[in-house]
Amino acid sequence: MYILDDGIRLNAKLDHPQGSSQKQPLLIIIHGFTGHIEERHIIAVAETANALGMATLRADMYGHGHSDGAFEDHNLFKWQNNALAIIDYARSLPFVSDIYLAGHSQGGLMTMLAGALKQDVIRGLLPLSPAWMIPEMARKGELLGQTFDPVHVPEYIGEWHDKRLKGNYARVAQMIRVEDAIERYDGPVLIVHGDADETVPYEYGIKAAKLYRHSDFVTIPGDTHCYDYHLEMVTEAVHDWLERQLTV
Predict the structure, then answer these.
(1) CATH top-level class for 2-246?
(2) Average pLDDT rounded to a whole number, residues 238-247
(3) How many Cα atoms within 13 Å fall on the side-chain side of residue 4?
(4) Residue ranges per domain, the chain?
(5) Which of 32, 190, 237, 247 is disulfide-compatible with 218, CB 3.0–4.6 A?
(6) What is the pTM (predicted TM-score) of this model?
């Protein structure tokens, strides 16, 4: 299936819990930078929510997976518009009661931004290894291992997995203040982070949890950015937190 965002087709997958025909909460899950909806950790979170009786909606964002757009042209403004379109689509579904929003890495950053944009709609946030340092690093001229002049941003700022990225990504990121988004969201938040994360410093997860007014923080000991060693600990944390929210 596809969700339309101003003519851009976003590849998406909607999964229902088994045996449910009544209204149910829904968890939207957003992948990360260079990621897609069929990644191991994304599917694991979806299956965890389904087991709790929640529907799940996974979507490939602009320039990723099977969605429209070129990777080199994607940026955080485009992803914010994508997130708004996805949330609005979820709200239009007649079987949906409450909406929760989860995301990994850049998707975790997007969860934090979209939660602020739709703070009156999103029941809870689950930023997983959230890469919310991206705007801060872009202002310094750094992005996921690449360096550039932050004032005179070049046409291209780097390459990941044979995919180039235009400098407009950095220009957009420099304009975003994630702390403002954190301040705006007053609902419950679960942050999960591996303390051996090689991509997003663990300290950023700790800092985000301290800034949110109503947050829980779970450390995955010795684990990486994509939870290569203890994914079951991630799904356990997600399960327990969601279960508590659903009984409130």
Answers:
(1) alpha beta
(2) 96
(3) 2
(4) 2-246
(5) 237
(6) 0.96
